[in-house]
Description:
This protein is 8% helix and 50% strand.
Amino acid sequence: MSDCVRDNKRSDMKSRGTSRAxxxxxxxxxxxxxxxxxxxxxxxxxxxxDDAASIRGTVVDPVxxxxxxxxxxxxxxxxxxxxxxSDARGEFAFEKVAEGRYQVEAMAAGFEPxxxxxxxxxxxxxxxxxxxxRIGRLEQHxxxxxxxxxxxxxxxxxxxxxVDRGTLDLLGxxxxxxxxxxxxxxxxxxxxxxGGLTSFFVRGGNSNFNKVLIDGVVANDIGGNxxxxxxxxxxxxxxxxLRQSNSVLYGSDALNGVVSVATRRGRTRTPEVxxxxxxxxxxxxxxxxxxxxxxxxxDYFSEYAHVDTDNDTPNSHYRNGTYAxxxxxxxxxxxxxxxxxxxxxxRAGSPNAIDYxxxxxxxxxxxxxxxxxxVAQSQITDRWRSTIRFGSSDQTSDFLNPxxxxxxxxxxxxxxxxxxNTVTIRGANGFATSGRAILDxxxxxxxxxxxRTTRRSLSGQTTYGVxxxxxxxxxxxxxxxxxxxxxNADPTATRNNGGLFLEARGxxxxxHHISAGLGYEHNAAFxxxxxxxxxxxxxxxxxxxxAAVGDTKLLLNAGTGIKAPSVFQEQSSLVALLKGVPGxxxxxxxxPERSRNFDAGVEQGLWGGHARFRVSxxxxxxxxxxxxxxxxxxxxxxxxxxxxAATQYGANVNSQSFLAEGVETSVEAAVVRDVHVxxxxxxxxARVTKSFSSASLAPAINAAFPGIPIGQYVALVGQxxxxxxxxxxxxxxxxxxxxxxxxxSGSFVGTRDDSTYLTDGFFGNSLLLPNRxxxxxxxxxxxxxxxxxxxxxxxxxxxxxxxxxxxxxxSGYPSLxxxxxxxxxxxxxGDRRP
Length: 834
């Protein structure tokens, strides 16, 4: 990383300069984005008085066609203050509106009534809105990850799932990972119990192939990693998952998917205060306190939540304290300025794979994460809008192993390693082995690993309506990344990255919705990359409220994605390895990991819009993946034998690829009022197509299983990547009527390839098992229920893992057994909704 690493003084000066420049740019762009008093575009359909505020809008159906003669009401504090109807073009207007917060309610024959989100109307401003009606009882969500501006899911072919606040309340869980378990085509893998490392796999891709956004702030570590273990549902309003690359909008790390988590906003004129407390077995205690509301132009929300549990294994105590806040201000006439802050402080014992060692390690890990953003959204004219965002993330990790655990063992006289107890390991594939594995290696204790990464970013995008059925968006982003070996010292590596994008969205006859974009990324690690993307949703049958077989939508998505190497991968690349070696050839710097995604399917509406079925085929090819290659393999990559022999170890190179294809199905139904059902099933065929790691070129052999090659750390060529099941699914059935809410959810996962990753006391392979189907299938079912005794007091109960199954993906890490948690919630105020 010679072009990234700076001496301490230059790093500090550059970091400060970047911070100041970003702040100045933000202030300047926000000021430029504010709509001035004279910026009132003419509207030939609804002329208005420049000195009076107005709300103008359009009523549309699910595919964007305008709905004439719809009844439209203007609401303030939940009370009707004005009423009109849409004209022949589906347009409506409310003139001479007093300053305040309003909602628009629209209704029409054959559609479900819809009430818009609250909007603030300042004096002499002219607010433009679109009210989208839906057919049937299924919620019609908008997506913030599939396109540059918000777009209704009915008008995009992208595979997107939104888990809204209503569903989160029904689940009654503590962590975001529980919401992710409901997303089709994905799998949540937790190593151990609550607080253990948690990964998220999308359609067969690696867990670090997904961009994670918290209120629009990039939460990934440098290199794409993100641990969902500490991300609780404190203050979360919705969770959205895009199961496809979108490096056009998000650049690096959006290789195979995007996860977006949004914080709630205050909405009541009377402050709403809520306190919840609950407890259960395993010493579990959870509590939260929140307050939210509005005051004139200002809205606010804050929540602090705390979780404390002993879990079920030695040295696995876990605690988490999370603050989440969002504050908004209506600036000028049509600018919404909002700021968010999420701070997570967590500590977890790390007993290691206790089933493999028969004894718990005494390690622990403490993490602190802070994500903050400031966003300005402006409606400059009826056709032109812009968004400016400043984001900041700061992540610190402190891993401590105070003493070596196990029995000292030194067969070669080079220093002792420490062995666990004698154990017998049995795989779901029928193979078994016994012995003692190395639990802790020799070295200096206490052993401590501390790290910190920061990211500061400034981005902006603008969208212009070229014509009624064509929008064009463009944007740019800049980010400064820094990595620290010591959280209290100067950075050891820095990167300045940037990107541009252009995207167009058009509609033909309100039947064919097309979105196409092109992204350009300039990264300090790999210089430049270009990523295209296209998404098509084509209706061969349009939605109809009276039809048993409703709309039929054909889907097509294609695109490419990229992911930057981590700082460690860059510093251990082939370029860094060969630097200064006599006779070394000139090699290209380590490049981005790449993906090519394709998705095609059909979505069918049923029973007057009360049910929807989707089936799609996906084909994802991941190439130029980074893997560590030992020095004896380097000659196969073109490095002269003498040069390779002169190197000390090996290098990270772009040399691996694998394919993940399959079929994904999902169904959602609300045929019976108050009962909602969702279910999904995914078949995945994933296989490694190329690898130069030592595991693939020289696989391990356990003498107890002669003739069976084993991948100790990575899957072999031709085998399935680890921990990705061929068969998986999820289901949720909920009932909500009056004060009663009940939900049953389940995850169903087939067998998976995996490895024990173990080394015996002689550095041998006697504790490795064949990879194929090493992890057992499982079916995990959870139940939650709540009852509101009064308008202020409610109670709840949740039972996780009702059948008490072992669902740990990695053998050796016991999963959380059946847990029961009961509690109560008290809510005060919040009775006057805008």
